[in-house]
Description:
Elements: H1 9-43
Amino acid sequence: xxxxxxxxxxxxxxxxxxxxxxxxxxxxxxxxxxxxxxxxxxxxxx
Length: 46
């Protein structure tokens, strides 16, 4: 059964949308962490 998609096109589209939304959330979190890291770097002495 390898290589077969066992869901309807609608289900596949829905899951692909959710997957993309999750990827966007991860990118947002990484961006927030990068901004925080930059703030901390600016505050660091020594």
